[in-house]
Amino acid sequence: MLNPQKKVDEPSIIERLHEIIRNMSENQQKMLLSILQDIDSIDRRKHPRKQGQLNVKYEDETGTYNGHIQNISIGGVCIETECPVSVGHIFELTILPPDKMKPMKITGEVVWSRADGFGIRFKKKHESREYVDK
Question: Are 54 and 98 a contacting pair, CB within 8 Å?
Fold first, then answer.
């Protein structure tokens, strides 16, 4: 049975996407992949995100590093940085709010990593609630 919403001579969406992607440069393909991964992760989020550019220090046994928080929820945080990290790595974060709130310390695990940043899932979700709810 034919699908009434699809014309027989019209290329499928997947075929059209394949054609477009094949004609992209490698850099364009990487950018598209990053966008699609962001869309996919948004759809899978369990907790709403609070947007903002906050400073954060993250540390482990090798040292202390600096980054910027793009967004945060009670479940995790997206950190923008140029320092590469590995999925599964554990960091202690110190979130530095711009107002008079005290810095928040929380431990988390890297769940994804790209050249421009990484995502952390907090070990104890309740620790971030104070900041996220404000």
Answer: yes
Residues 128 and 76 in one domain: yes
Domain that holds residue 33: 13-44
Q: What is the pTM of this model?
A: 0.59
Contact between 50 and 72 under an 8 Å Cβ cutoff? The reply is: yes
User: 3-class DSSP state for residue 71?
Assistant: strand
Site of tokens 């550019």:
53
Do 95 and 111 belong to one domain? Answer: yes
Is 76 a member of any domain?
A: yes
Q: What is the pLDDT along the chain (134 residues), one digit of tens a residue?
A: 445 455 545 668 888 888 999 999 998 888 888 777 766 665 555 555 666 778 899 999 899 999 999 888 888 899 998 888 889 999 999 988 777 778 889 999 999 898 889 999 998 765 555 555 55
- How many distinct structural domains can be found in the chain? 2
Q: How far apart are CA 35 and CA 131, in angstroms?
A: 27
